[in-house]
Task: structure prediction
Amino acid sequence: MTIVYRSEKKAPLTADEVDGNFRDLDERLSKLEKSVQVGIPESIASVKVDQGKLHIFGTKGTKLSEVDVPVLSWRPRGMWQQKESYNSMDVVYYQDSLHLCLAYHVSDNFNPKFWQEILNVQGILKSCGMKMRFYSNESLPKNPELGTLCVTNIDNGIIMAYYDGKTWQRVSVEQGK
Result:
């Protein structure tokens, strides 16, 4: 079996496809371990993941293998809506929180058994005395109050943004050295 990539499929992977990916990797590793024991006088010393690749190094420092690792990613969907179909890994904004969909469904009402809260935006901001709204990229207000904060889905990702008096700006966090 070949590995199924979400980016090539352009849809979330099914449980069978994820299992198939792991099965494929397990078979490849098993073959590698057998070849190391039989034909190569070197065994596996370490396995490292770096930039989406699994690197396998031998006891003599040899790079024995490099394999692409499939990565699941969240798919921002904006505000939760009735009668909308949702797949696992979809992320929505509902009642001041971001929620991750756990299984495919279409529902008339928000059903917590299909969702896991991943961030209570208002809870965090309330503790700081601030308010924030969620807008889809298309529904961002044109002239909000200066300094307005929001969560939105610009550039196929969920980001925080603020209004600087002219345009919406991405909130960026720089990490210290």
